[in-house]
Design a protein that fits this description.
three-stranded antiparallel beta sheet, 14 strands, Pnp Oxidase, Chain A, seven-stranded antiparallel beta sheet
Length: 199
Amino acid sequence: MFYKTDRHHGLPYNPFKALVAPRPIGWISTVGADGVLNLAPYSYFNAIGDEPPMVVFSSTGYKDTVANVKATGEFVCNLVTKDLSDAMNASSAAVPDHVSEFELAGVTPVQSELVSAPRVGEAKAALECKAVKVEQLRDIDGNELNQWLVTGQVVGVYISDDALEDGRVKTAALQPLARLGYMDYSAVDEVFSLKRPGS
């Protein structure tokens, strides 16, 4: 089948997210100007460079996370592993501004080293970030969308000692969670290596 995206695809469920998969989950923690801690998962998230390390996430709607990053210029990306899937899911609930998703998810806020936003204490890794840009996206006709893109530079990295083995992150053992399409998720539990041609 083929469909133009300005028309309905004719399927009972939208296939787009299922085709751009798996997607890592940016479990973004921020603190508001009022001191309320915020924690929310974003599956439109990824690393976009490594010298210096940079990440990006996008939000449909100007949500608390985006507002907090805009106000403070800081955020933390926490690694979601399979054992934290229920907590991550709980933190996705739409709640009033004064409610902290840390409490809702039953996870522990731990003071970061370089930014004001806390990291999730139960997460095996966290990226402390300073915002480079917060921008509203536009479509090909120049129309403003209800979508916001946040680009951040990673200024500090936390890794739990038990997540490392022989100087490498134990990816398969940690089972990072990935978002698929619909309500589906997957955990990385198998890893294989490929050498680049000529290496």
